[in-house]
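INFO worker-7 received task bundle
INFO bundle size: 2
INFO processing item 0
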Amino acid sequence: MNSSLRGALLSLAAFGFYATHDVVVKLLGADYTAFQIIFFSGLMGFPLVTIMLMGDRRDGTLIPRHPWWTALRTVAAVVTGVMGFFAFSKLPLAQCYAIFFAMPLLITLMAIPLLGEKVGPRRGLAVIAGLIGVIIVLRPGGGDGLGIGHLAALGAAVTGALTSVIVRKIGSEERSAVLMLYPMVLSFLAMGVIMPFVYVPMPVEDLALTAVMAGLGMLGALAIIAAYRIAPAVIVAPMQYSQIIWAALYGWMFFDESIDLFTAIGTGVIIASGIYIVLREDTPLVSQNRPVLESRSRLDIGTTPRISSWLKRFERGADRG
């Protein structure tokens, strides 16, 4: 089995873990607020991340070199987590993923002012087509109309894209520990402040589910790290769209959901435009920044650190070995 095929299979497994993670989020979201779910899932995940941070032997402090960009990214990451978790509790899984799949389109747009990226007519048309796909999924004025869940999913896509572009802008100069730790700490503290107002007692089995979430997030991250280490990003990145298959399966199994025609058509348009952008970014003459390919993460939320930060640490460890 060649490295590209192994990388593709590993990334498919990773997004399977992530999709299962999101099913748990949706199950818990029926009884608890996003604030409470994020608080406990972050609490369960802290020991795992702390062990990884203890392995950082480089000299330096946790003071960011770009404090304002770091602060903006940290807040955006926490907001992304809250809105993303809330969207899962309100919308069918397939609709959530369809809207989240707009992130590469938004990253491409944000990279123009923030990274100085030049977007030619072909990628520009792909972005427009993808945004039309989002409108098809949302179909404002049709169906049940836009709800707060749709707005939360859109907001998560926007702030998630912003966090990815900021990391692309400052990531080479900031310590991985800074990029990993700040969103987690802010998320934990912010959710802790809100908790007295939203807390609902959780039975042991629901607390165990938050631990399962943390474990699935870790498994997904480790699998995608391994995929990026052995296969090019242009092979790994499009595999995120496999989550729509998991959404259809899990939605049918657990939530009696089905994918309607508008969601199917809009999702197809969004995926096609996203894959086209990925393929164009892999052409050296088209993009020097490669903002979508180099984001190397799914939703950037405050409960788990960015995959790209973990990948840097693994690569440094391999170099030392």
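INFO item 0 finished
INFO processing item 1
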Amino acid sequence: MEPVKLVYPVEGGDFIQAGEASSKMKMTLKKLGLPSDVIRKASICMYEGEINMVIHANGGQAEVEITMDQIILRMVDHGPGIPDIPKAMEEGYSTAGPEVRSLGFGAGMGLPNMKRYSDEMDIDTELGKGTTVTMKLKIS
């Protein structure tokens, strides 16, 4: 199988379209016949990253690369950056405001879930410049 590359724009603050990129990726993974557990994990990682970009980073871009043995998800934004990664990785910690929480988002589970459901996760962030979260999931 030739590597498959997908790119999805994510609009900041657009809670109506939030989740569209992960839904489209999920459909592609199903068409490729990948195992359902891998599809589920990749969809969770993608959705959480997408929601984080909608809430915190004024949007960005979700990049997906699918090879024979792995899925690489790269969430790239030009938001404010993450000032304290260890704190942001704590379950329940969130900097989302009350308006976002009133919509049912911002529970502080995004990054912890991304870490939990990926086999490998790396966060590259620079304050005032943006954040790139790269997740790898093995296809077994």
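INFO item 1 finished
INFO post-check item 1: The beta strands are 4-11, 59-66, 70-77, 120-126, 130-138.
INFO post-check item 1: The helical segments are 20-31, 36-56, 85-88, 98-102, 110-117.
INFO worker-7 idle
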